[in-house]
Amino acid sequence: MAIEGVDRHAYQDLFDQMFRMRAAVFSDRLGWDVTVIDGKEIDRFDGEDPLYLLCVDELTQELKGSVRLLPTTGPYMLRDVFAVLVPDGSVESPLIWESSRFALNPLLSVGPNRKDANRVVNTTTIELLCGLVEAAQLAGVEHIVSVFDARMARIFRAADCPYELIGVPARIGKTMTYAGLFEISDSMRRRLGAAGGLHAPLLASAGAGLAAVRSA
Q1: Side by side, which strands form the sheet with 51-56?
Q2: What angle do helix axes 186-196 and 114-138 make, rounded to 10 degrees?
Q3: Residue 39, Cβ neighbours under 10 Å: how many?
Q4: Which of 49, 108, 131, 148 is an S-S bond match for 53, by CB 3.0 to 4.6 Å?
């Protein structure tokens, strides 16, 4: 589902799950220098009215994964936090969004049946990537820029999700970190859909939130 930042009060439980999941991923697993208060990771960019894509289990309402979108014409993470990755300057265009805080629920990758758990995580990854492409297409955006770690770089390759490496990789926290530019196109959506068997549109009704981000 796509939720505009100003509407997050209507989804309090899901956002509490998301902020706790982000703390587990970015503070505990990756060792990034993020602020965690009461077990939740919330930063100043959450106050910039981003668009959130949330992957939710329809039966249990458990959050499986999430990602955040912001236009590069305003404050965003690559330029304002991870400038070390782009020493020659970052991108800025109304046709480029940044995706950030891409996270999967770590509890879904453990359990008594690891094969099933890994399958769920893989499906969630593909759903979020397909959602990113669809959201950008609906808003007329041509590229997405993102900061990601070495593990995500391997996942992108496995999912047939190519990107252009920009700037200079650097070790941040416990892992090598990269900045990449992803082309938004029908062919990208088809490749991702083929990787996860997701061919039907996921965000056909997300127009209002997308328009809000586009006009920011």
Answers
A1: 2-4, 51-56, 63-71, 96-104, 143-149, 175-183, 164-172
A2: 160
A3: 11
A4: 131
Reported as a single tens digit per residue, the pLDDT across 53-108 is 999 998 888 999 999 999 999 999 999 999 999 999 999 999 999 999 999 998 87
Are the beta carbons of 19 and 5 closer than 8 angstroms?
no
**What is the per-residue pLDDT for 109?**
55
- The closest of 26, 21, 96, 95 to 54, measured between CA atoms, is 21
For the four alpha carbons of 82, 88, 94 and 99, in that order, the dihedral sign comes to negative
Cα–Cα distances (Å) from 208 to 127, 131, 133, 197, 215, in that order, read 20, 15, 16, 27, 11
Other Cβ atoms within 10 Å of 158 Cβ, number: 11
Helices 114-138 + 207-214 axis angle, to 10: 60
Residue with structure tokens 């629920």? Answer: 105
CA–CA gap between residue 71 and residue 80 (Å, rounded): 13
Distance from C-alpha of 21 to C-alpha of 162, rounded to nearest angstrom: 26
DSSP E strands, 151-211: 164-172, 175-183
Task: Say whether 126 sits in a helix, a strand or coil.
Answer: helix
DSSP code, position 143: E
Largest CA distance in the chain: 48
pLDDT > 70: what percent of the chain? 88
Beta bridge partners, 71, equal 97
Numbers of helices and strands, H then E, in the chain: 6, 9
For 72, the token pair is 């590069």
